[in-house]
Amino acid sequence: MKQTLLPFGTNLGCQVVTKKNYWRIVGLRDVRPEFTAAEIPRLEQGLRTRIKAALAPVEFILAVMEIEAWFLAESTHFARIDPAITCAAIQATLGFHPEQDDMSQRPNPTEDLKACYQIGGQTYIKPAIATVAALDMDQFYIETAGRCRFAPKLTATIDAFLNQPPPAAQPAC
User: What is the pTM of this model?
Assistant: First the structure.
């Protein structure tokens, strides 16, 4: 699999993919550590105004506060990381329940995920390749996303992409 890292969220990064005939750009962004929950409206406004309109359409989706909140909420993956990591063990040890509590309200989801993994003697590290591989994407898409702030926007964007043909004319650079 080929990966390209672009200065996303910048006109340069969007110009690169627009010139390669991408017709839609979706950016997934953590809120923290640069912003607080109270600053989300300012962050959203800034994201909308940073990109030139002539480039491929850009859709920004925030993961509040971090994408790890979504990983916490998709709690079926814990058993695939280690069978000792259960929602009951997380609640008993850390005081929150990934299936019952709103994980988007967790102030530091990355640290929470690290603590959850430690219950099973495992380590959470970025990039989150092992975690993403362990996620049940059907579960996330059908069940979990509805319980996570901004995740429904991601699933709706994916649905729109899969159900809409690309435009006939590519945007001008």
Answer: 0.77
